[in-house]
Design goal:
Layout: H1 4-13, H2 17-21, E1 35-44, E2 47-61, E3 67-78, E4 89-93, H3 102-109, E5 112-115, E6 128-131, E7 141-146, E8 154-155, H4 167-184, E9 192-197, H5 199-215, E10 221-225, H6 242-257, H7 268-288, H8 295-309, H9 313-318, H10 325-331, E11 338-340, E12 348-350, H11 363-383, H12 423-432, E13 437-443, H13 451-459, H14 465-468, E14 471-476, H15 486-503
Parallel strand pairs: 4-7, 4-9, 9-10, 10-13, 13-14
Antiparallel strand pairs: 1-2, 2-3, 3-7, 3-8, 5-6, 11-12
Helix pairs in contact: 3-11, 4-5, 5-12, 6-7, 6-13, 7-8
């Protein structure tokens, strides 16, 4: 058995494995990077923007300048900019881990947008691709990134894809790409941003600190779309009640939306404020009592919990007051033989097995994924002119060796494994760069990364008040991919564009 010191040393070495492991192979064994460059025109908010689209791969090198991967990307660079410091540049990715960037790319950030029904199922092809009036291209250049194993990205030489599949390995790889792209495209003096969704926000918190501490690159701002920093808030671990508390306000929002709240309040905001107070007060205290909660005290909590979840007292009693997310999404509309969406609980789908305890699919994902995929593939190969011999992978799931390494150098007290938390990374970056601003966009109907978990995580970072004020929280009456909801799409654009414009000024 390894000692505590040995385990800590191993964790500290994880970020360095990429640069230490591989000797440079013969040049003829390294595939060449390919980039398709086209000239395009976008019309955003009545403005015509001429830009260069670059889609393909960058040959990624480690710190010893040894080639380790072909890293896929799609960049949109505005024409006619002569002074780089006047033009922001944003690096954008989705999450998973193991997801490509097509969701943010075709949903809100890029110059084209996939049109899907919201909150319903989108019929099969032909799908509709529209000019994206909410693209950020009018305020920033954009680099859509596809982590290794997704898009066109793959390990080369003596490296293997699995060498990049882990919390710290991924943080280092993403940071290496950003450093190299900035260098090769003369953007060191441009205002710089990270935009990530879901696991991409967990990644963001690590990358912003890594770039600052190891590369000497400070970000002007970071945009967190549907954020999570402390994975403990999501896992529903045996004997740990925190996930039940963090999910409760989103259960309340979902029950309110589907008219399952007794004497439904008129105001969602007021109802959620009440739910938060119950979650952190009476509910937390009740869960802390474990099997010591009984009698009238237990009955009172069951009444309140039924009010805030839309579930029956009988079900909540059987669940011992603890209902996990897949149990909730299956139970709320069980009588209607429907399953509630995880990514966006406004979406519902057919429940083929009303007896099952857990939901087995996500209606929101099923409703929109085919449309996004078909439109992206058509756009990528036919508009951006990427070589069709190169296979684009929407996801790394199912690929050989895909098994994420969840260890993180900031975590694991006493040598024991714990759910990773990149909140401390972000806190360190903010404390050492007091000008760094963080914009967090939260979907009220997001059961994948519940908003109350984000609020809790921020309140437990130990930030000084003047630094904590650099975190800006915004809320949307939609889910994880709030941009499928057109009013939220427009709100997303305004709040994110304003953030970049304000933080990009000297």
């Amino acid at each position: 058995m390894k000692s505590t010191a040995q385990w800590l040393l191993l964790l500290l070495l994880v970020p360095s494995l990429v640069s230490l492991s591989w000797a440079q192979p013969k040049n003829d064994s390294i595939p060449k990077a390919e980039v398709s460059t086209t000239n395009q025109v976008a019309r955003i908010d009545g403005k015509v923007i001429n830009y260069k689209a670059m889609a393909g791969t960058l040959l990624l090198r480690n710190d010893e300048d040894e080639p380790i991967a072909l890293h896929g990307f799609t960049a949109y660079i505005k024409d006619g900019v002569t002074d780089p410091k006047t033009r922001p540049i944003s690096f954008v990715f989705n999450g998973g881990p193991g997801s490509s960037s097509i969701w943010l790319h075709m949903g809100v950030i890029g110059p084209k947008r996939a049109v899907v029904n919201d909150p319903g199922f989108t019929p099969a092809a032909p799908y509709t691709l529209e000019d994206n009036n909410s693209s950020l291209l009018d305020v920033t250049d954009i680099v859509m990134m596809d982590p290794i194993g997704t898009g066109l990205s793959k390990a080369v030489g003596k490296a293997k894809n699995k060498d990049f599949w882990g919390v710290d390995q991924d943080i280092r790889m993403i940071s290496q790409f950003i450093k190299q792209f900035i260098t090769e495209n003369n953007r060191w003096n441009s205002p710089k941003y990270l935009i990530g969704e879901s696991y991409g926000t967990f990644r963001n918190a690590g990358v912003v600190n890594y770039l600052q501490e190891n590369v000497g690159m400070s970000m002007n701002g970071v945009v967190m779309v549907s954020a999570v920093f402390d994975l403990r808030t999501l896992v529903f671990a045996q004997g740990d009640d925190i996930s039940y508390v963090m999910n409760l306000p989103t259960y309340s929002a979902t029950a309110w939306y589907h008219n399952k709240v007794p004497n439904k309040p008129a105001s969602l905001d007021a109802y959620l404020k009440e739910s938060r107070e119950f979650a952190k007060g009476e509910y937390t205290s009740a869960l802390m009592l474990g099997d010591q909660l009984s009698g009238e005290a237990r009955n009172k909590i069951l009444d309140r919990l039924a009010y805030f979840t839309g579930l029956s007292k009988e079900y909540l009693d059987k669940a011992d007051l603890r209902v996990s997310e897949p149990e909730f999404t299956e139970e709320l509309l069980r009588q209607e033989r429907k399953t509630v969406g995880r990514l966006d609980s406004r979406f519902t789908g057919i429940n083929q097995d009303p007896l099952t305890q857990y939901s087995i699919y996500d209606p929101q994902s099923s409703a929109i994924s085919p449309g996004y995929t078909a439109l992206f593939m058509d756009y990528y190969y036919n508009t951006l002119k990427v070589n069709k011999a190169n296979t684009y992978h929407v996801s790394a799931y199912g690929r050989e060796g895909f098994d994420w390494d969840w260890k993180h150098a900031f975590g694991g007290g006493f040598g024991f494994p714990t759910p990773p938390n990149t909140g401390p990374d972000m806190a360190q970056a903010m404390s050492r760069n007091p000008h760094l601003k963080i914009l967090i966009l939260n979907g009220l109907y997001d059961l994948a990364t519940p908003f109350y978990g984000v609020e809790y995580s921020i309140d437990h970072l130990g930030l000084e008040k003047e630094i904590k004020s650099n975190i800006i929280m915004k809320y949307y009456e939609a889910g994880h991919m709030m941009y499928t909801h057109r009013p939220s799409l427009e709100q997303f654009k305004k709040e994110t564009a304003d953030f970049i414009l304000q933080t990009g000024k000297k």
